[in-house]
Design goal:
Blueprint: H1 3-10, H2 22-25, E1 32-36, H3 46-53, H4 55-68, E2 73-79, H5 83-96, E3 101-105, E4 108-109, H6 114-122, E5 137-141, H7 142-150, E6 156-163, E7 169-174, H8 179-185, E8 194-198, E9 205-208, E10 223-228, H9 232-238, H10 241-251, H11 257-260, H12 263-266, H13 273-281, H14 301-306, H15 313-326, E11 350-351, H16 352-358, E12 372-374, E13 379-383, E14 393-394, E15 401-402, E16 407-410, E17 419-420, E18 425-429, E19 433-437
Parallel strand pairs: 1-2, 1-5, 2-3, 6-10, 7-12
Antiparallel strand pairs: 4-11, 6-7, 8-9, 8-10, 13-19, 14-16, 15-18, 16-17, 18-19
Helix pairs in contact: 3-5, 4-5, 4-7, 10-13, 10-15, 13-15
């Protein structure tokens, strides 16, 4: 099989969270390849562990992917504070005698956002709604590179489990493992009345205590953060859109902080959350000024850090964006216009340490995750849609015995990713997932 055929067969997707099928992303030619080793979400330590323990595989993968897309420049971007990881990568590059650059960036959020990272590494601004490839750049993350290099089906994930658990740790579990079992591997929650953030605290999604036994690991899950059910982050997720819009109408002071600290605005995009908030205050979310909401990357800086009134510009942007999409309205860049980066960009980056304090997460910071607990459940519930695109189609029969790594659902020629069994066992085929249970 060719390089891309092997990636497609293995079911590799963007492990950084988006889940875009990797065989599609790498079916391109580009001048620059950037490996995103930033891991900018607070508290997550998964990628840093992978870098420390598999630096040669990461470097070989960077070289391999760069060669396949004909990249003239190959860059691994890391935060300058991550000294151990930088040292491991530099050593691997030197030992393998490869022409790969290490780019150190500051400790700010969201440094790992594709658009922010391209600006940091290449000094280029990607136009609104466009992808890095439009400027001859491909960006992929650490776990994805390692999945590509393994040339094996994607069946497991390394996950950070932290927060209100007895033993914060890294775990390596099969795709389809229940979140409840994952928490037990970290000693279980140490409080009553909690919720779990699936992913990072800024862009992750909350899962109720009663739902953790029926929520399962996917190919894109990198973290589990247990927080008290009355934590400020959780309370934000509990607000209804009606309540959020009412709060905007009564309390937004039009200070512009949501706009002035917005990473996309600072990158030169015409995104103005304060104008969206003003329109929302007058129940005019279909106003022309609201169209900029379609450019929001939903990083959360505006509502989790910037707003002095504790309002929710990101959530309102999400709501407005959805309404425009329902009406089949899309953002259109003005022909020939290049957006200029804000002169204040360097001075308005959000320091990660300050963000962690603002989020009231300081007591959960743990800088040493050197060990991984490996575990295999007796049952895996494997989603047919763990990626951008169409769900995979089951190719196994009810009651069939499968082995770990066996293809159980195929994407065919559609945009999507193949799905493999993550354990040995008997199959039960459902509408949206496949159960594999040991016997």
């Amino acid at each position: 099989m060719t390089f891309l055929e092997t990636i497609k067969a293995s079911g590799v997707v963007g492990a950084g969270g988006a889940g875009f099928p990797t065989h599609v992303k790498l079916n391109a030619k580009a001048d620059i390849l950037i490996i995103n080793a930033i891991e900018c979400e607070p508290l997550l330590e998964t990628d840093k562990y992978l870098i420390r323990n598999f630096p040669e595989d990461l470097v070989k993968g960077t070289e391999k992917i760069g060669s396949e897309i004909s990249a003239k420049k190959k860059v691994i971007a890391l935060k300058s504070k991550n000294k151990k990881e930088i040292a491991r990568v530099r050593e691997a590059i030197q030992n393998l005698k490869l022409d790969i650059e290490v780019k150190e960036v500051g400790n700010f959020y969201p440094a790992g956002d594709e658009q922010m990272l391209v600006r940091e590494v290449a000094g280029i601004t990607i136009l609104p709604t466009q992808i890095p490839l439009s400027k001859g750049i491909v960006v992929t993350n650490v776990a994805t590179v390692l999945d590509v290099m393994s040339e094996m089906p994607v069946t497991h994930r390394v996950i950070t489990v932290t927060g209100e658990v007895n033993s914060p740790t890294l775990i390596k579990v099969p795709v389809g493992t229940s979140i409840k079992e994952c928490l037990e591997l970290a000693g279980g929650p140490k409080i009553d009345g909690f919720k779990v953030i699936l992913g990072g605290p800024m862009m992750g999604k909350p899962c109720n205590e009663e739902d953790i036994s029926k929520t399962y690991v996917t190919k894109t899950l990198g973290g589990l953060i247990v927080l008290p059910e009355d934590h400020a982050i959780i309370n934000r997720h509990n607000l209804s859109i009606k309540h959020i819009l009412s709060r905007a109408a009564s309390a937004c002071i039009q200070c512009r902080m949501c706009t002035d600290l917005c990473p996309r605005y600072l990158n030169g995009h015409p995104l103005y959350p304060h104008l969206v908030m003003r329109a929302a205050a007058f129940s005019d979310t279909k106003a022309e000024s609201c169209k900029s909401a379609m450019l929001c990357c939903e990083c959360g800086v505006c509502e989790m850090y910037a707003c002095p009134m504790g309002l929710s510009p990101k959530t309102i942007n999400q709501y407005v964006k959805t309404e425009f999409l329902k009406a089949n309205v899309r953002w259109e860049n003005k022909e020939g216009l290049e957006y200029e980066v804000s002169d204040m960009r360097e001075y308005r980056k959000v320091p990660t340490e300050r963000l962690i304090r603002r989020l009231d997460l300081s007591k959960y910071v743990k800088h040493s995750f050197d060990d991984v607990i490996e575990y295999e459940p007796s049952r895996a519930i494997i989603s047919l849609k763990q990626h951008i695109g169409a769900p995979a189609t089951p190719i196994v029969d009810e009651g069939e015995y499968v082995v770990k790594g066996q293809l159980i659902a195929s994407i065919g020629e559609s945009l999507g990713a193949n799905v493999h069994s993550s354990i040995d066992g008997l199959v039960s085929v459902k509408e949206d997932y496949i159960i594999v249970e040991k016997r």
